[in-house]
């Protein structure tokens, strides 16, 4: 079947590439309006097919065809739909290739026995086909990784979904149902129960924003109902965006002051204003105003009554938008479900389509989710799944509703982001999300080649706030689960990032109010490693002969030799050079740093650089075109680059400190080492660190060894590891750790420094030295009560 499906997708794509149909043009407009331009952050190119939208449309047409044929074979009846009919446009004038492949698919499905059809329906058929058909270039751009059956089953277990089969009063909704993975998972656990078809028809619902996925999911649902003898359920799967919820709807649900103006709705490629509180077909038809319409390239202002604007559109557009309006009205009438499950969209805030970002931004503060401003907002990593979770609870929940969702694991342990999420309450007056437990699947490759850290959240909606500790299970390779307890790292701040403890481990009794030391990231080239990273070959008089290091560089640059002035070259250490109390840095590794202690993040001006180091400026100028358009430049970075195209990122006075206590940013465990000055062509200079290393800067060598020793003690290291998000040992992991300031007069401080200096000189952190460290840690001034890790 897969070969015929592939041929059908390719044939439809070729047909549309040769002569785009009205159905394709309208689908493309709807798709971009809902998702933003494909390849907005990174261009998507497919061999032999210049327009990836054409290929994506072909894939969706093929999947919808199979879904419709499967529903028909099972005896399912689908309600007439102009929107779903967009994917049948190729049938108006089919090519021989489309006819042959479609006929072969139909014949194959017609030969399936009842048992084979049930097995197919319960086996999440469209996930495998979608992943196989969609090239990695598009999948990565879309984040198109669908819920695997085993995680769906885990979520259903966690919310006790079998209640659905035992009581006709229990209703189930998947707010972002995709291709129907949870429908299949429900069917798999429900077989061979009696009345299962009626259960799906009366109690199982879904909502989906993407038109093609919706067309597949509603056909899958209809096929399940019909195959199991249930009555037709034409509207259980709704085409609408359940994530976006406007301020007026939030205010009405939470009983807070309503903002000026009426409702805001987004059906299809329209943005509507509606003065009425209730969204009904009649209200939409008579009072809705079109504020904006997407024309395929951009949102255009309209400001006209919906019925007038709609009357001027082509018949195909009118029919599709009527379906979209019907979906919006149906979404607003849904609510009061006993079970909410699913896998919301995971899209980082910085990767969202700017138009969608502007649309949803007002919805975050009234839900208590997002209040960052200024610099914090520029570096925000909030995720769309946060809003999706709270919107689902607001729309569909009530007291007693059980919720089970697959979410990014970082929502629970990220220090700066997701604090609003961890309030676990809808706004200041709404219902609470009482957390029942979390399962951490970070160690499980749940989504194939996508490096996602996945967690399953289980909670119950009600009047009581979340209580801690929360049961936290962590999946380990081999299938076992480690049982932990999760608690806010700051006991007086329930929104703080979670720290994880073993079941028999004491929690930290107090948060740190004053930081004695601050960690920083190493320098970042913004995607131009092969320009700034160098190898020193030898010195010739006042110049150093170097070549740029192009090994492992993602952005390819020609390898060249050059003779550069040594003033702006520094010894360089990378993440892989560091171990516990060891630094194995290749002596020739260097980096160009056209900054000073005084200029910090601003580069040395070109005239100053050219006056002291004309060869260095000339070398950098060879790569000016690349350096000006580096892919990872933020707005703040671009201001620095405007002052000097060769600016590095994440540079401060700390970059030039002679001593640094450093650790790897990516690691499952925590270990650190002191990085001191290194020799570069016979001269000692401060060692500059790569962005994959995090460090605390020092000017006093003894203080550096003391802090490194303190962080290496078993209780402190364990406390740091509680705060690691997946494998990210960020700058924030020490912020809740009280590191007593170094006191040269304190004999314990001096002994800690001496043990660490000894280890760096010979053998690293051995078990014997670890024992000495831990004994010294226990005798620090102030005893056990001084340090929150004890």
Automatic annotation (TrEMBL):
Keywords carried by this UniProt record: Methyltransferase, Transferase
Q: Which Gene3D superfamilies does this one have?
A: Vaccinia Virus protein VP39 (3.40.50.150)
Q: Which GO terms describe its molecular function?
A: nucleic acid binding; site-specific DNA-methyltransferase (adenine-specific) activity
Classification via PROSITE patterns: N6_MTASE
Instruction: Fetch the SUPFAM superfamilies from UniProt.
Output: S-adenosyl-L-methionine-dependent methyltransferases
Query: Which processes are annotated in GO (biological process)?
Result: methylation
Q: Which domain of life is it from?
A: Bacteria
Q: Which protein are we looking at?
A: Site-specific DNA-methyltransferase (adenine-specific)
Organism name: Piscinibacter gummiphilus
């Amino acid at each position: 079947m897969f070969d015929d499906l592939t041929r059908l997708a390719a044939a439809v794509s070729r047909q549309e590439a040769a002569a785009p149909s009205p159905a394709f043009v309208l689908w493309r407009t709807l798709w971009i309006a809902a998702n933003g331009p494909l390849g907005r952050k990174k261009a998507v190119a497919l061999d032999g097919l210049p327009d990836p939208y054409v290929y994506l449309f072909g894939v969706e047409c093929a999947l919808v065809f199979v879904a419709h044929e499967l529903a028909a074979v099972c005896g399912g009846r689908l309600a007439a739909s102009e929107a779903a009919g967009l994917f049948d446009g190729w049938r108006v004038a089919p090519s021989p290739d489309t006819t042959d492949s479609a006929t072969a698919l139909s014949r194959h499905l017609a030969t399936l026995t009842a048992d084979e059809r049930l097995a197919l329906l319960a086996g999440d058929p469209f996930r495998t086909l979608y992943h196989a058909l969609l090239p990695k270039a598009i999948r990565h751009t879309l984040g198109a990784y669908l819920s695997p059956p085993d995680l769906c089953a885990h979520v259903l277990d966690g919310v006790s979904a079998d209640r659905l089969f035992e009581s006709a009063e229990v209703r189930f909704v998947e707010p972002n149902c995709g291709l129907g993975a949870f429908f299949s998972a429900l069917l798999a656990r429900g077989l061979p129960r009696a009345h299962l078809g009626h259960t799906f028809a009366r109690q199982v619902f879904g909502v989906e924003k993407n038109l093609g996925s919706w067309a597949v999911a509603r056909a899958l649902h209809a096929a399940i109902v019909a195959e199991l003898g249930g009555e037709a359920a034409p509207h259980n799967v709704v085409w609408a965006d359940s994530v976006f919820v406007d301020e007026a709807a939030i205010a009405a649900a939470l009983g807070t002051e309503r903002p000026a103006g009426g409702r805001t709705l987004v059906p299809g490629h329209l943005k509507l204003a509606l003065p009425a509180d209730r969204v009904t077909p009649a209200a939409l038809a008579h009072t809705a105003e079109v504020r904006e319409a997407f024309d395929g390239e951009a949102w255009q202002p309209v400001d006209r009554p919906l019925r007038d604007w709609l009357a001027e559109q082509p018949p195909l557009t009118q029919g599709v938008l009527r379906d979209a309006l019907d979906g919006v009205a149906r979404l607003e009438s849904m609510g009061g479900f006993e079970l909410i499950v699913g896998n919301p969209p995971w899209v980082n805030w910085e990767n969202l389509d700017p138009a969608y970002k502007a649309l949803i931004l007002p919805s975050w503060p009234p839900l208590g989710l997002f209040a960052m401003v200024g610099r914090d907002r520029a570096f925000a990593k909030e995720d769309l799944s946060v809003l999706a979770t709270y919107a689902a609870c607001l729309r569909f929940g009530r007291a007693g509703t059980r919720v089970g969702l697959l979410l990014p694991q970082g929502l629970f342990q990220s220090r700066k982001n997701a604090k609003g999420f961890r309030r676990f309450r809808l706004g200041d007056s709404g219902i609470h999300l009482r957390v029942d437990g979390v399962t951490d699947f970070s160690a499980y490759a749940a989504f194939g080649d996508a490096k996602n850290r996945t967690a399953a959240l289980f909670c119950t909606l009600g009047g009581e706030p979340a209580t801690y500790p929360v049961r936290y299970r962590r999946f380990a390779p081999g299938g076992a689960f480690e049982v932990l307890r999760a608690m806010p790292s700051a006991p007086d701040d329930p929104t703080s990032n979670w720290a994880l403890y073993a079941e028999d481990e004491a929690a930290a009794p107090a948060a740190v109010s004053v930081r004695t030391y601050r960690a920083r990231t190493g320098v970042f080239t913004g995607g131009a490693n092969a320009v700034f990273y160098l190898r020193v070959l030898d010195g010739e008089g006042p110049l150093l002969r170097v070549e740029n290091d192009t090994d492992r560089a993602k952005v390819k640059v020609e390898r060249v030799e050059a003779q550069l002035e040594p003033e702006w070259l520094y010894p360089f250490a990378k993440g892989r050079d560091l171990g516990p109390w060891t630094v194995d840095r290749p002596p020739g590794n260097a980096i160009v740093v056209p900054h000073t202690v005084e200029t910090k993040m601003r580069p040395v001006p070109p005239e100053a650089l050219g006056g002291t180091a004309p060869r260095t400026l000339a070398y950098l100028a060879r790569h000016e075109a690349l350096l000006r358009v580096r892919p990872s430049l933020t707005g703040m970075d671009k201001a620095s680059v405007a002052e000097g195209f060769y600016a590095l990122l994440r540079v401060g006075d700390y970059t030039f400190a002679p001593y640094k206590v450093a650790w790897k940013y990516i690691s499952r465990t925590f270990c650190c080492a002191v990085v001191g000055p290194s020799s570069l062509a016979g001269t000692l200079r401060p060692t500059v660190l790569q962005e994959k290393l995090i460090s605390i800067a020092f000017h006093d060598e003894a203080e550096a060894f003391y802090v490194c020793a303190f962080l290496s003690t078993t209780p402190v290291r364990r406390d740091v590891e509680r705060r690691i998000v997946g494998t990210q040992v960020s700058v924030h992991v020490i912020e809740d750790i009280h590191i007593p300031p170094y006191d040269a007069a304190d004999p314990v401080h001096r002994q800690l420094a001496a043990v660490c200096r000894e280890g760096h000189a010979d053998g690293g952190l051995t078990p014997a030295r670890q024992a000495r460290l831990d004994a010294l840690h226990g005798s620090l001034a102030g005893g056990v009560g001084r340090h929150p890790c004890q």
